[in-house]
Amino acid sequence: MASRKDTLVRRASRVRRQIKAVANGRPRLSVHRSSKNIYAQIIDDVAGKTLASASTLDTDLRSSLKTGADTAAATAVGKLLAERASKAGVKDVVFDRGAFIYHGRIKALAEAAREGGLNF
Predict the structure, then answer these.
(1) Region of 51 on the Ramachandran plot (φ > 0 left; ψ -120 to 50 alpha; else beta)
(2) Stated pTM of the model
(3) Which of 22, 30, 32, 100 is the most core-located residue (most Cβ within 10 A)?
């Protein structure tokens, strides 16, 4: 029987494989959440570089948030990431949820990024 970690790694790799197949050169918006924080970055897989990133650990957000582990924090990270992406000249991305289900904090971050001007 596979362990929980093995299952999560398999699910994440399956999602990334599907995303890279349909990306058509677009950068990937990768999201990771832990029990205390949420992290997001826009990655150009062709060049192997991170174009923009944001997390609840950023000094801009840290002081204004009550905690880094709720949907309000995820919304703030999504808006900040969209702002940084527009400064970097990125509009179109593909969404990489990793091994996480599109629900709760992951969904809040994605919707805030869409409102901020990212297309996916």
Answers:
(1) alpha
(2) 0.92
(3) 30
